[in-house]
Amino acid sequence: MIPPCINKYYVLDLQPENSFVGYAVDRGHTVFMVSWRNVGAEQGHYGWDDYLELGVFTALRVAQAIAKSDKVNALGFCVGGTLLGAALAVMAAKGEDTVESVTFLAAMLDSPRPGRSACSSTKPRGRARSDDRKTRHPARHGPRIHVLQPARERSHLAVRRQQLPAGRTPAAFDLLYWNADSTNLPGPMYCYYLRNTYLENKLRTPGALVNCGVPVDLGKVKLPMFGLATREDHIVPWRSAYRTLQLVGGEDKTFALGASGHIAGVVNPASKNRRSHWMGSAYPEDPEAWRAQATEHKGSWWPRWAKWLDGHGGGKRKAPARTGNAKYKALEAAPGRYVRHRIVH
Question: Are strands 99-105 and 225-230 parallel, antiparallel or unpaired?
């Protein structure tokens, strides 16, 4: 699982009752999760290719080695999905065949025109940085979710505060805690992402980008794909996420549209039987045409994904008694040191 690098990974593992990671483990999968570090000055020179090489490719190789598997199933959420899409295109160009399937959760490979969903850093301050400068992009200036939320959603917590007696604060809320626990990014990497995949939308055009020395062509990614978008997502509009179906190659594609927004629509545990999701068997180019023929199903999309993934899981064997292996030894207990590193503004 490749989570977004602009926040910490545990959005998919918040609590036992709403952990997507726990759900996958309970279904019999061995799960590996990338935990992006909070970038300091010594990593300020890292670019987009570094995040592919040191993050995505290394994680896939290590997971494959520890699990002793011929192939791995890969999942990317939000910006993690953008990174994973580019990484899979690089692997396809190099003839590397170690990924069995791909899941994109609220991921944008085809950007809409910057508008309501644009983050604060689309202003000149963000564009002016040079890709070869050794610098950090502080998290407080980055694409944090509360900056992107519509005014009515940003005001919800303020209204709750006003309604409480003097001196009282709202009860702790796991998603709000996670939302405030953001990370710094390297300036070169952030500016590359912002300019090339968002503002200029080059990832969708075959050969428009060169990553890790090869042209990027999403059409060469011919893997079984499960895509999820959420209907009220203001960060990754669902119509943009739907267009991934036309960008990647292959014929085995499944798409689900969940209710709610960017986070709540993804973190929707099956045990709660809340909200709805929509499924359709045909995938026309026009997302509205798909929506018109899609069927609503009550409850979470998680079981739908789990059933799909079961078809790409290969054989079963007994779970290992310990984490890691002789070459890749466990360094420390989860959640690891990177999660504990907080930004002090």
Answer: parallel
What's the rounded Cα separation, in Å, for the pair 123 and 216? 27
The 10 Å CB-count burial string (b at 16+, else e) for 294-318 is beeeebbbbebbbebbeebbeeeee
Q: What is the C-alpha end-to-end distance of the chain, expressed in Å?
A: 29
Q: Where are the alpha helices (DSSP H) in the chain?
A: 20-26, 48-50, 58-67, 79-94, 124-127, 145-148, 151-163, 174-180, 187-192, 238-242, 244-247, 287-293, 302-310, 337-340
Give the CA diameter of the chain. 63
- Is pTM beyond 0.90 here? no
297: tokens are: 């199903």
SS3 content of the chain, % helix, strand, coil (to 5): 40, 15, 50
- Dist. CA 91–CA 231, nearest whole Å: 31
Give the class (CATH, top level) of 9-340: alpha beta
Compute the radius of gyration of the chain from its Cα atoms: 20
Output the six-digit token pair for 307: 């059933």
Residues 25-52: tens digit of each pLDDT: 999 999 999 999 999 989 999 999 999 9
CA 238, CA 257: separation in Å to the nearest integer? 8
Annotated catalytic residues are 78
